[in-house]
Amino acid sequence: MSAERYTIDTNVLFYAVDRSAGAKHDLAVEIVNRSVDRACVLTVQALAEFVASVTRKGRVSKADAVFQASGWLALFPVAAASPTALASALRAYDQGRLGIWDALLLATAREAGCAIALSEDMHDGGKLLGVAVRNPFGVGGLPDDLRALLGMT
Predict the structure, then answer these.
(1) Per-residue pLDDT tens over the stretch 30-61
(2) Which of 37, 43, 104, 129 has the CA that lies 20 to 30 A from 122?
(3) Pick from 92, 113, 110: nearest CA to 101
(4) Which sequence spans correspond to the domains of the chain?
(5) Which DSSP string corresponds to 87-128?
(6) How far apart are CA 84 and CA 96, in angstroms?
(7) By the 8 A CB rule, do 72 and 46 touch?
(8) Residue 1 pLDDT > 70
(9) Beta strand pairing status for 6-8 and 131-134?
(10) Angstrom distance (rounded) from CA 125 to CA 97
(11) Interatomic CA distance for residues 64 and 102, integer angstroms
């Protein structure tokens, strides 16, 4: 598994369209744009959660959310959850390690060969099945290892 292969969680995608998010919006746009040419895999789950969350919170219209998610679907390799990923997520959830949706995202990312998940919603540095969670919006700015991952060095 390459340390360069990664996925982007829903919250980063959300900030990429949320112009009211200020610096988080700017960084999320840069992350997504740079990830198109990197070893980034999106999950079906993150794209579906993106559409649901941005429309529910009124950030964009349903048509705009569908258009954006469809664009990402065309630009990125996309991985869907398998029964095996769900079984792994259920175990992690049952053990109290993560919420079910976070566990499923990480288990799916693992099956897609990802070593890193960019997410603000999970514990920075936490791991499940060998996938490390990294918060790109932490205090102090984007860490050097994530800058390198995104080709920003």
Answers:
(1) 999 999 999 999 999 999 999 999 999 999 99
(2) 37
(3) 92
(4) 6-149
(5) HHHHHHHHTTSS-HHHHHHHHHHHHTT-SEEE-SSS-TT-EE
(6) 19
(7) no
(8) no
(9) unpaired
(10) 14
(11) 25
Q: How far is the CA of 80 from the CAs of 11, 34, 42, 45, 88, in angstroms?
A: 18, 22, 9, 7, 14
The answer to whether the CB of 129 falls within 8 A of the CB of 89 is no
The region, left, alpha or beta by phi > 0 then psi within -120 to 50, assigned to residue 25 is: alpha
Token pair 């649901």: residue: 52
C-alpha distance from residue 19 to each of 25, 33, 42, 125, 129 (Å): 6, 15, 22, 28, 34
Q: Rounded to an integer, what distance in angstroms lies between the CA atom of residue 135 and that of residue 122?
A: 8
Q: Does the reported pTM lie above 0.85?
A: yes
Over pLDDT 90: what percentage of the chain? 84
54-79 confidence digits (pLDDT tens): 999 999 999 999 999 999 999 999 99
Closest C-alpha to 42, from 3, 8, 4, 82: 8
CA gap 50, 14 in Å, rounded? 6
Answer for the pair 71, 86: CB distance below 8 angstroms, yes or no: no
**Residue 20: what residue type?**
S
